């Protein structure tokens, strides 16, 4: 059988080669002879295949055996086109306007909706803002300002043209069929790729939708004309929108005028506006939605302030639970002494200022209690109160605890870094307890925060502004530490803006009874009876550990007492020592007095002075001798003088100089009381 001859007419050599290769893939060499254009071939070819209709005009081809090829796209190059967003602006480049238009038409017919502008030699227009070109292999024609070139390659013959060639030449179509399987496979693989990326997009969309609806902020996305593109559940809840009809596409400013129109007053998009809607106060923020460098609409985000206030409250409650808020208020400070009343009135005044406070006082006097009260009474009372105790803070940790650290600063450091206590105390108060124990390098950093009101995390480079009030406390003599070079003088002056001194308990003994009764009530179910002797011991005691020691003593007494009654036996160790010492001293005194004379003689001298004291009188030796005689004791003035000197030497009486008379002391009265039961006549 004669081998049919196909004349292939193309404009370029490259196209000829692509077509040739394609046809020989489908038809065996011995089935079909493919030839290029010359006169002879034109005459005796069985079929003429033109690559483009334009070629019809170049020469008179016999119409009955001429077909114009339909051209497709190289599937292997389609992927880049598919990835290009559908509303992209691009130029389509080719050698002639009509060839360019042909590609544009083809792409449109395939469903690509890019904004395509023809570009060919001589068109010379520069289209602003376009940086993508679609080009069938002729990359050299692409203008230099284009950054993104999508080469779709030389467009091959459309599959239908190959089928037509096979039919017109009466060729075996079995091979064509088998080849078509490969073509279909390519399409399937491409569409699989596409559908898997579509799946990813679908999943992403799904996740975005979920996030959109999970946030508590109201979110409304609108297009450039204010039509709603998307609205989340929170937005509908906040705006009380329960209309079941679809809200998408509706005009947002018409539907929610207060939210959109009132908010328009803020010119700056980033500005936050407060708008009243349905008796709710909403904080509104707007931002632009930008896609491919183009603004396509706006996102309006809003929160119900009442909800924020509620959240703040519950956070504050949580902070209280973990100790980040004041545990005590001024009502917790007990005591009715003049000193405590004075200090409370100072505390109230100090609390109204925002200055640094330095609380001085011995251990256990209640410095922490005062710090909490100042914070609680201040304008920062609703903010955090962060206590830092330098006595218990390891030196190695002090800096990172106070100032925080950045991610990756040390091995084992928390991912994402950690806030320091100063940052946590923002808008509140930091209580620097036992400040005298702060290491010198930390003192330097503290000074910097106090001066600059900014902190820098360990390993960080940014300064973080903090608004924190400082209350410091110490039981040490800071002035002395400054002299010894252990405390920075500049920090000392920074801290001593408002110093207050909490007096030790022994200087305000009136408070002992208030505190005693309060703590006893707190430590026992039924209020116990307290023997007066115990009260006397408690009032006489020096309380080196102050209120903290008193709490301990009450706990001890209520634990060991019998029959709900506290007696001398229930006093703890430190009292027993004192009582034994007192007893020893008493016995020593009695022994000394007895050595010097009759105890009764001392008794009458003391009793005579005690009587005079009751009458608010100081009496001289002569009067004492007189009184002693009245009592029936015949003591010479000399003897009386000697006994009075002994009493004076033991602190039982005071003797005035030059006839000013003498007076019984408190210890003298105590001894008198002790001797009374046995010696009183
Ligand atoms: N005036 C007061 N009224 C009621 N409780 C008090 C009073 N003063 C102190 N306390 C109680 O005494 C205990 C010790 O007080 P706080 O810890 O405030 O003393 P501090 O001076 O800070 O001691 P330190 O210097 O040892 O830290 C606490 O339990 C506190 O509640």
TrEMBL record:
SMART domains: AAA, PAS. Coiled coil: none annotated. Keywords: ATP-binding, Nucleotide-binding. Residues 333-559 form the Sigma-54 factor interaction domain. SUPFAM superfamilies: P-loop containing nucleoside triphosphate hydrolases (SSF52540), PYP-like sensor domain (PAS domain) (SSF55785). It comes from the Bacteria. Residues 204-247 form the PAS domain. NCBIfam families: sensory_box (TIGR00229). This is Sigma 54-interacting transcriptional regulator.
